[in-house]
């Protein structure tokens, strides 16, 4: 089953997602995909992996890490399916990153690899945009690069873990304005999901709603205002986002 | 009556690294190493996840298999009104008040490594003993911080030595992300970090904000 959070007529609802991405409210009403505002399906901390695909690490001329390189994102950066993200004025390079996200379902502490998947609620997709100009340090991406307002689309929904037979062989793809730009497979992850759950839970308690964004394969390209960016993980979801300018973003924000 | 800390400081815990002049100066040589070869340009920020939240009088767990644990005395700024693209001269109007933070951490091998393992362990961020409204603090940039271990003074500094003061931090951070009501900005920990052991009573005192006490216990 697919679970989402939406806003409709000013009220936030937990919904299930049916055919054609229509959403079913708790009272039984069915609403079309484009009739609702999609919200991030989880709002915990996000543990985002850097350089977790060997080809991407090579693309950036770095050696693959020997221990997970993780940084944390806060809920302020998340946005939902069909929402907008802003590109700052006067930057040279802003890129998307299609990622499979594992969503924690129950508190996880000292979990062994073989039990790890039982701690998941399910999976979602994120687009972990970065503005390369602000990257002072690859090993510790600053919040200016990775925690900007509305710069991490997440969603559209969470697919139950039991509905994904094998998270380690899913195709990831990104299209910009309909053109396929990024293609990879979760089989190429350096540290897979069971490893990451064992790793994080060995020193801290992962909480329900926390997310592990598992990194992105090669194939990054610059995006500009007006671009429509679609990231998809096979069997999990297809997340649509549009880039607008800094001026438009803050004008909208001030109106809201 | 003052609002309870648990009712106001409910948001994200944002930390600022390298925000005391003495600490920054002690690391300058390291920043000249390859591949970066220059000191950080913008504030170096990190997040303490919600599982790190802890309170006055509560134990802090010394993790098994860890060689060193260090407290991090810091002034916490509690945001009272969401701040997006706020100029320094208007920034203080977004501050609800202050709280003492003890930002526990394992020593980091390198500035170039992410700090999750060092900073995000359960209970590694005591806050307290209470929320102090902004109106009750005359000048947040002239406060003395003291760290006591088992009653002995081990570290002392002043918020006059912040590299970036509160208005500048709020301006530079809110340029790209909103600081929301209830978020806590941990303004930095001074140089000269101290190791603590299981059994130690660790206290942080800041002028006018009280004294935050925690006991270190073995895992």
How would you portray this structure in words?
- The complex is a heterodimer of chains A (256) and B (219).
- Chain A contains four helices and 19 strands.
- Chain A has helices spanning 54-59, 143-146, 193-201, 246-255, and strands at 2-8, 11-17, 23-24, 30-31, 37-39, 46-50, 69-73, 78-79, 83-87, 94-95, 98-104, 120-127, 130-131, 152-160, 171-176, 179-185, 211-213, 228-233, 237-245.
- In chain A, strand 18 and strand 19 (237-245) form a beta hairpin.
- The longest helix of chain B is centred in the N-terminal third of the chain and has 11 residues, at 21-31.
- The model of chain B has no long low-confidence stretch (mean pLDDT 94).
- Chain A binds chain B through residues 44-45, 47, 50, 69-77, 88, 109, 134, 136-137, 139-140, 142-144, 147-149, 200, 203-205, 207, 210, 250, 253, and chain B through 12, 14, 36, 40-42, 44-47, 49-51, 63, 84-85, 110-117, 120-122, 173, 176-178, 180.
- Chain A: One of its GO terms (molecular function) is 5-carboxymethyl-2-hydroxymuconate delta-isomerase activity.
- Chain A: Residues 46-243 form the Fumarylacetoacetase-like C-terminal domain.
- Chain A: Keywords: Isomerase, Metal-binding.
- Chain A: This is 4-hydroxyphenylacetate degradation bifunctional isomerase/decarboxylase HpaG2 subunit.
């Amino acid at each position: 089953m697919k679970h989402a959070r939406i806003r409709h007529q000013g009220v936030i609802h937990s919904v299930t997602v049916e055919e054609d991405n229509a959403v079913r409210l708790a009272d039984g009403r069915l609403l079309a995909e484009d009739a609702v505002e999609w919200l991030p399906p989880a709002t915990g901390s996000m543990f985002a992996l850097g350089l977790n695909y060997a080809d991407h690490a090579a693309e950036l001329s770095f050696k693959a890490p020997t221990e997970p390189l993780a940084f944390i994102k806060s809920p302020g950066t998340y946005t939902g399916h069909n929402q907008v993200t802003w590109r700052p004025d006067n930057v040279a390079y802003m890129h998307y990153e299609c990622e499979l996200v594992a969503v924690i379902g129950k508190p996880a502490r000292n979990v062994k690899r073989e039990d790890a998947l039982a701690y998941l609620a399910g999976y979602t997709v994120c687009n972990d945009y970065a503005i390369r100009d602000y990257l002072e340090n690859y090993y510790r991406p600053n919040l200016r690069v990775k925690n900007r307002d509305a710069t991490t689309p997440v969603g559209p929904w969470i697919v139950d873990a039991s509905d994904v037979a094998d998270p380690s062989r899913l195709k990831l793809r990104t299209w910009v304005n309909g053109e396929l730009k990024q293609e990879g497979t979760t089989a190429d992850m350096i540290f897979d999901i069971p490893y990451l759950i064992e790793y994080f839970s060995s020193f801290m308690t992962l909480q329900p709603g926390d997310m592990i964004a598992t990194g992105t394969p090669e194939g990054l390209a610059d995006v500009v205002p007006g671009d429509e960016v679609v990231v998809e993980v096979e069997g999990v979801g297809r997340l649509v986002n549009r880039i607008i300018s800094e001026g438009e973003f803050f004008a909208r924000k001030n109106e809201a | 009556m003052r609002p309870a800390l648990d009712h106001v400081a409910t948001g994200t815990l944002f930390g600022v690294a390298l925000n005391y002049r003495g600490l920054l100066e002690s690391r300058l040589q390291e920043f000249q190493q390859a591949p970066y070869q220059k000191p950080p340009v913008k504030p170096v920020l990190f997040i303490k996840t919600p599982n790190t939240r802890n309170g006055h009088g509560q134990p802090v767990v010394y993790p098994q298999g860890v060689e060193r644990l260090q407290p991090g005395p810091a002034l916490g700024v509690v945001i009272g009104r969401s701040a997006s693209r706020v100029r320094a001269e208007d920034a203080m109007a977004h501050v609800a008040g202050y709280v003492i933070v003890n930002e526990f951490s394992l020593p980091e091998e390198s500035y170039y490594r992410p700090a999750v393992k060092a900073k995000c362990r359960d209970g590694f961020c005591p806050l307290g003993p209470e929320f102090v409204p902004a109106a009750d603090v005359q000048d947040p940039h002239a406060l003395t911080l003291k760290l006591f271990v088992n009653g002995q003074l081990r570290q002392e500094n002043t918020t006059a030595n912040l590299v970036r003061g509160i208005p500048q931090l709020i301006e530079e951070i809110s340029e790209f992300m909103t600081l929301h009501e209830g978020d806590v900005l941990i303004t930095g920990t001074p140089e000269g970090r101290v190791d603590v052991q299981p059994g130690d009573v660790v206290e942080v005192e800041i002028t006018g904000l009280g004294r935050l006490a925690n006991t270190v216990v073995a895992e």
